[in-house]
Specification:
The chain is mainly beta and 232 residues long. It has helices spanning 3-9, 136-143, 150-153, 184-194; strands spanning 15-18, 21-22, 27-28, 31-32, 36-37, 40-43, 50-51, 57-65, 71-78, 83-93, 100-101, 108-110, 120-127, 155-159, 163-164, 201-202, 206-209, 211-213, 216-218, 223-225, 229-231.
Length: 232
């Protein structure tokens, strides 16, 4: 098991059966394997386990690779991570091209379609920037970071823009508030930093965010865009 494969199998029993790199050619009913293994194999002890995305992603393609003995596969793109992953030898798939998926979406079930000697997942990984296959386990260990949750975005922020509009709701369609509509604490900070009654939070002003909706944060005075401030 590994951190990467535990995300894919949701902790169900499995093990690495063939790492990335050169290996002996394997004879299967679908034909011989290539001498260089361009992914990592995970055996599931003859159980057709469900497989899941490691986080929010998009299905790039799914299908059957007839050139490799009829292996069923799914490609998932992970925009935040800058990679796409191949789930290969599936018994069946449960997604379609263009579908948005998350860590609880069943991609398909582990199988042995194509050139395979037993039920397992062959996992491949490519960078979205281009190039060939890279070692999924090595890439994950070096580069993976957990996605930031809405809860992680709450806290104290500092304004980086000259003036940051405070709105009645999370979006530019909502009304921008005037100085008199801001909280008493915000008014004091604005006057201290600028000496003027500005209609919004001002540069270097600090404030607390208690709720997040996309890139918008709710403060005691109203909603602001978090694109124009930084968390401290």
């Amino acid at each position: 098991m590994s951190e990467l494969s535990n995300l894919i199998f949701h902790g169900a029993k499995h093990k690495i059966t063939s790492p990335y790199g050169y290996r002996d050619v394997i004879e299967t009913s679908g034909g011989n394997s290539a001498p260089f293994h361009n992914g990592v194999d995970y055996g599931t002890f003859n159980v057709k386990l469900p497989q899941y995305p490691i986080e929010d992603g998009i299905i790039v393609s799914r299908g059957i690779d007839w050139a490799y003995g009829g292996a069923k596969y799914v490609w998932i793109k992970y925009p935040r991570l800058g990679v796409k992953m191949l789930h290969y030898h599936l018994d069946s798939y449960r997604v379609k091209k263009g579908q948005a998926v998350n860590k609880n979406t069943i991609i398909g079930y582990t199988g042995k379609t194509g050139k395979a000697t037993g039920i397992h997942l062959h996992l491949g990984l490519k960078l979205l920037s281009g190039g060939g296959y890279v070692d999924p386990e090595a890439w994950f260990e070096k580069n993976y970071t957990e996605p930031i949750t809405e809860k992680d975005k709450t806290g104290t922020y500092k304004v980086t823009a000259k003036v940051l509009n405070v709105r009645s709701g999370p979006g530019t369609k909502y009304k921008a508030k005037k100085f008199r509509e801001l909280s008493a604490d915000a008014q004091k900070k604005i006057l201290k930093l600028t000496g003027k009654k500005k209609n919004g939070y001002v540069k270097n002003m600090t404030f607390s965010v208690v709720e997040v909706c996309g890139n918008w944060g709710r403060t005691p005075s109203g909603w602001v865009s978090l694109n124009y401030c930084r968390k401290i």
